[in-house]
Amino acid sequence: MNTVGGILEYAGVSGFLSNLGKLYEEADEVSAQWEIFLRTWHSLLGEEGVTIKEVIAHLSENENELSHEGDPPAEVAGNCENIPLFEALPETLQIALKEKPRSFSIRLGRALEKWVDACFGEENFRMEKHVDSHRKLGVWKVVREVAEVLPVTYKENSEGESTYI
What is the superkingdom listed in this entry's lineage (predicted)? Predict the structure, then answer.
């Protein structure tokens, strides 16, 4: 990156990657929102496949059951059992639902599509999409794949240096 930055600077283009810190901050916030959403989805719906219509029905059901106005959401890292799915929606989707409820299913589908197979959090919550050939509909599910921790073993070579096995 330094080489590219140097070439661009020489060519008169300054500020290459000057907004990198801000970009990382925004990416972290978006990732955190999606982790909470997928964790809550998994907690409420399990790993069973659902359609966009079923997700929206669940969101609408939860929207009516929201906690008292003004109370902060009950989100605690690692524990989303008490958060309604509506409250766990990423901010951009909450705005889309409030401003344009008629086209929300399209926005939600596109947002889910964007994050298929992306992993969030230490428990690797991940969105999967399958097509139900009978109904000809997309079926979505959130899977959780906690990484297995393998023991690390060392071996010394003839020079006394340790290597991983």
Answer: Bacteria
86 pLDDT above the threshold of 80: yes
- The answer as to whether 155 is a domain residue is no
Within a domain: 6 = no
- State whether the Cα torsion 77-94-29-111 is positive or negative: positive
What secondary structure, in 3-state letters, does 77-142 show?
CCECCCCCHHHHCCHHHHHHHHHCHHHHHHHHHHHHHHCECCEECCCCEEEEEEEECCCCEEEEEE
Check if the beta carbon of residue 124 is closer than 8 Å to that of residue 31: no
How many C-beta atoms surround the C-beta of residue 85 within 10 A? 20
Full residue range of the structural domain in which residue 25 is found? 21-148
Looking at the 3D structure of the chain, how many domains does it have? 1
What percent of the chain has a predicted confidence (pLDDT) above 90?
A: 38
Token pair of 16 as six digits = 């290459």
What does pTM read for this prediction?
A: 0.64
Q: State the Cα–Cα distance between residues 135 and 131, nearest whole angstrom.
A: 8
Residue with more model confidence, 52 or 60: 52
